[in-house]
Write a structure and sequence with these properties.
Elements: H1 9-23, H2 30-37, H3 41-47, H4 51-74, H5 79-96, H6 98-104, H7 118-141, H8 147-170, H9 179-191
Helix pairs in contact: 1-2, 1-4, 1-6, 2-3, 4-5, 4-7, 5-8, 5-9, 7-8, 8-9
DNA-binding region: 29-48
Organism: Streptosporangium album
Domain HTH tetR-type: 6-66
């Protein structure tokens, strides 16, 4: 059995994540990652043919880790509860993963998406497609099929919780303990039938 690589991909991406969270995507260079990971530059180029490929791998790993739990909340339980759990997940995951959250507060364009390898761009397209499809399915389970109703569900489960997280992170404040309840209350109000809102 061969020995595991001394500088495996996750270790290198952990170093890249540390740099991106502390100083932004522009700080993630091959030389900087090599320094933080205590790895030779050649080891990095052996795994990532370019800086853009490394940035793509970092973004996609972060997104995949977030989406795994988010998708799980959408696919289980009664639809109303699934919507509330999805909104809560955005907050609770962000609190538990502050470094990764700082990465996601940027966007893929900040991680040089135009220059990503084709397979990385396709990976992102499919990942985002899975979330969009799951939210449309949840909307249908809620009996909401009109475009504005689906958009309201996106707002309730993604945009609003994400904005709550962003405000606290950008202020360097901890996410308060009541934030999950707050976003869940807002989600419940947004997905309620009009007659139930007032």
């Amino acid at each position: 059995m061969g020995r595991p690589a001394q500088h495996d991909i996750d270790r290198l991406l952990d170093a890249a994540a540390e740099l991106a969270a502390e100083s932004g995507p522009s700080a993630v260079t091959v030389a900087a990652v090599a320094r933080v990971a205590h790895a030779p530059s050649g080891s990095i180029y052996h795994r990532f043919p370019s800086r853009s490929a490394m940035l793509a791998a970092l973004w996609l790993r972060t997104v995949d880790r977030f989406q795994e739990g988010f998708l799980a909340t959408l696919e289980t339980g009664p639809p109303e509860q699934a919507a509330l759990d999805a909104a809560r997940h955005v907050v609770s995951w962000s609190r538990a993963h502050p470094r990764e959250t700082r990465i996601l507060l940027y966007g893929p364009a900040d991680f040089d998406r135009p220059n990503w390898p084709d397979e990385a761009r396709e990976h992102l397209r499919q990942s985002n497609g899975r979330v969009a499809s799951a939210l449309r399915d949840l909307a249908a389970r809620l009996g909401k099929r009109e475009p504005h109703e689906v958009e309201r569900l996106f707002l309730a489960t993604v945009d609003l919780p994400y904005a709550t997280v962003r405000r606290h992170h950008l202020s360097d404040e901890p996410i308060p303990a009541y934030a999950e309840d707050l976003v869940a209350d807002c989600t419940a109000a947004l997905i309620a039938e009009p007659s139930e809102r007032y």
